[in-house]
Specification:
The chain is mainly alpha-helical. It is built from six helices and no strands. Helix 2 (about 25-60) runs parallel beside helix 4 (about 90-95).
């Protein structure tokens, strides 16, 4: 129900804002504002997204919980989509999601509503020593060198690919 309301309300709000702002400042300044916010927003999304990607990599390498960097990355991606969408209301929401305190508040609100049942990191076999290990869990590392016999130049064709259906 909330999603349907958002799909109806957001375009109506955008149209009303375009009419009000366009009537106050004119067509070309309104279009310039929309274009400038899209360019500035994409630059901010790129820089903040790179920072969150570095935070996510460090959380993976240090075996810390990557939930918050992943959520921040998702919110930054959503902010980028909103900033590229023409409109003033979506730009305001998109720029708000680029502010770290707003993202922290949204993450806190989402974390209170989501119940994580299980979270694992690292080698699953070392965490569950009683689990039987199958052939798919074994890795054999090795090196090889292809060795073939030199072919006798006087020998005829090998006939290894001919179908022998004659019963001989």
């Amino acid at each position: 129900m909330w999603l349907l309301l958002a799909f109806v309300a957001v375009p109506l709000i955008e149209i009303a804002l375009f009419i009000q702002i366009g009537g106050a400042i004119g067509l070309w300044p309104t279009l310039a504002i929309v274009l400038i916010t899209a360019i500035a927003g994409s630059w901010l999304v790129r820089s903040q997204g790179a920072r969150e990607l570095a935070n996510m990599r460090s959380s993976f390498s240090e075996l810390r919980d990557p939930t918050e960097p992943l959520a921040n990355g998702a919110m930054i991606l959503f902010a980028g989509a909103l900033l590229l969408t023409p409109g003033f209301f979506t730009d305001i929401v998109g720029f708000a999601l680029l502010l770290p305190p707003v993202r922290a508040a949204a993450y806190k609100a989402l974390r209170e509503r989501v119940n994580v049942q299980r979270f694992e990191m690292g080698d699953r076999a070392s965490q569950h020593p009683h689990r039987p290990r199958g052939p798919q869990d074994r890795v054999i590392d090795g090196e090889y060198e292809e060795v073939s016999k030199p072919r006798d130049p006087n020998a005829g064709p090998s006939r290894w690919s001919q179908d022998d259906t004659s019963g001989r």
